[in-house]
Input
Amino acid sequence: MNDRAPMLETTGLGRAFGKKWALRGLSLRVPEGELYGFLGQNGAGKTTTLRLLAGLLRPSEGTLRIAGLEHGTDGAALRQLLGFVPDTPPLYDYLTGRQYVALVASLWHVDRRQRDERCERLFATLDLSEVADELCRGYSHGMRKKVHLAAVLTTAPRVLLLDEPTTGLDPISTRRLKDLLLAEAAAGTTILLSTHVLEVAEQICHRVGILARGSLCAEGPVAELRQQHGARSLEDVFLSTAGGGD
Amino acid sequence: MGLVAADLRVLGNLLTTADGRRVATSTFVGLALFALMSWWVADALVDRPDLLAMLHRETRGGSLQALIGYGLMACPLVATWYGLSLAQRQLFEAPELLLWRLAPQAAVRAPLQALLRASLVSSTWAFALTGPFVGAFLRQSPAPLLAWCMLPLAIVCCTMPLLATLLAVQVALVRWFAGRALRLVLTVVMTLASLGFFAWFLLALFTPSQARVHDIAAAARDAGGLPWTVDTAAAMLSAVATGRFDWRATAGAVGWLAAALGIFLFAARQHPRAWERQLEAAAGFGARFGRRWPAGAAGAVRKKEFAQLLQQPGALLGFVLFPLLVFGLAQRRLLIGGILANPRLPDCVATLGAMLALWFVAVMLVLYAHMGRMAVWDGPQWSLYMASPTPPGRLVRGKLAAIATLMLWPLLVVAVAGGHLLGADRSTLATFLAVAIGGTCAALGVLAALGTWPRLMRPDEGGHVLQGARNFVAAILLVFAFDLVTAPGWLGWIWLDHFARERRLEEHVVRPYAPLLAGAALAWGSLVGVLGAAIGTRHYRRLLTPR
Ligand SMILES: Nc1ncnc2c1ncn2[C@@H]1O[C@H](COP(=O)(O)OP(=O)(O)OP(=O)(O)O)[C@@H](O)[C@H]1O
Ligand SMILES: [Mg+2]
Output
């Protein structure tokens, strides 16, 4: 896979909060159309990494290029390509799900016909059609997440960043989400996600990176990692790298 | 749908829900009250042709401009209050900020949206405060239709420039100085702005018409009497009202608006960095405080209240400023001058009366904040209380214990002020302490009963407490209830005063009654306190049962 030009590339990326480094020395190359998963214990730096990639945080050191663009210089052009699904979605409580999607689509310059077509399809896939015209304030946690996801996918991002996308989703929705992500990746979207659910990583990610205390301690396709560590499952790999280091 | 359209849609959707309609109604009631007061102040002036004639003379014919300027002064005050208090949150803590930042639009778009929201809200409040007052004089003038049409423009021209500048300054400050120190400073400024605004409002409301006219004339006379924005806007509007069109003033007013917007847009480019810095600096104060917490529920709740207080720089500052205020009142004999100067009362009685009056005022100042501690401020944690098996009585007890400790502060401050500045002797001090402790118990009873009243205080499902009119009603009820439970004291004082008019009171005659007075106050206070706590516990049980 590494023969393709990288869609996303970081070198020595690091971010400190005060004196504490949340992430340090992250070098990544993710080619177009790859599904890349971040694993790691709580506080390992997954959210920080995704926020850096999304341009919400500035790196304290290192560089970051997405599709050849940089956050500082090509802000709007880069954000047009990006979709970010944080763990608490920034919904407007007093808009309906459909109105929220319309707002997001208009911010990302999606025309009306495409928007309506994508929105209908995504709402149907994510089982949201029934609540589409209710106010977001009444949504459950999982529904909020799915609505924001649908809104982001409506903008057809070329790079999709998801922070723990499956938390709060029911098994059916989780399954649909996995299929959706695989289809998106097959269509050329580069996807980076963080997750605590190893099965998700095992089933859909082309490659995973395991973060521990702010740095990458293992990276590669799941099968390769298993082989390298002589482990039977990704869980064993995780325990021996992320948790079992001490 | 753009960001503005989305906000408008939100307003529309708000009205389709019951909660939203409640918010809208209470906001509307608040606005209507402000408008009513503004109209009332204007009406009192319109009814006094003599005063208006005097103003006309003193301003050499410029009375309309002076009056309009006076009315428009509310705009920069609202802008200051709003810009320093709520707008700060909208600028850095609105949940939608994340979306605005992610969207492929200019970096200034997000702060601009915050400014638009803040402008809409503050202009609306400014309109409620200014419109009726200025309108009354436009009608009396009588002004052509164009003047009425330009009134909103004048209000916006007086509100927006200051608001935009304040927000710009805050963006810049957070961008370069984010941290605990800045947070402290901003919170202090925020508290002062809120206090200052309401103090101004009350003062303006209760100024007698005569004094008001003098103020207006004085402001019109000296060149720096009004802010530039208000001055130009008043000139613009008064010219139109008298059938002229003052191009210079209009260009000036709009120019101020444009200049401030320019400054804002310049500073807003730093907003992404500022927002980031704000997120980093969000850590609290003194996390080490209180490692050893009590195991009992009441004790833990009490400790929690203190810990929360330490996290609120504004509240802490209030505690520090408070003695200065009380000492100031005592030193200048404000409010208590009449009592102390009463020749018929022996010194010890007058001093006791003055100290009790000071204590009463001091408690009034802090009572409202303490009411929040009973239930409202726990809104976000409400589900925790609802889920916990702790009996409501314990929670109430813990909260009351915390508030009781905090209420010792006014007691202490007034006692020291009395001893130092009013020359109270030891037995007077002792009597004061006993009576004031009784009064504190009564105040606690009032807080327990009212601060937990489900009708006023119930947090909604999301843990939010509705602001607006309910708040206002709660404050008024609190003042009224506190007056009621301290009524025996007031009545006793009035009786004493009457008594002293008929027969001269000698110090050696009244001294022996001091223990009796102290005992009565303590008994009454305990009665009210126990009763209030019982009601509060019942209320808490109702608050904690799911709806
Ligand atoms: N705004 C912030 N201010 C200070 N420290 C922060 C901030 N955000 C993150 N950190 C620190 O950075 C480290 C990494 O946090 P991050 O949120 O990236 O972890 P995570 O891997 O996403 O954890 P989780 O699995 O719990 O979501 C943590 O130690 C955290 O305390
Ligand atoms: Mg995280």
About this structure: The first helix of chain B runs from residue 3 to 14. Confidence is low (pLDDT under 50) at residues 284-289 of chain B. The pocket of adenosine-5'-triphosphate (ligand 1) is lined by residues A 17, 22, 40, 42-48; B 279-280 (CB under 6 Å). Chain B touches chain A through 29 residues (CB under 8 Å).
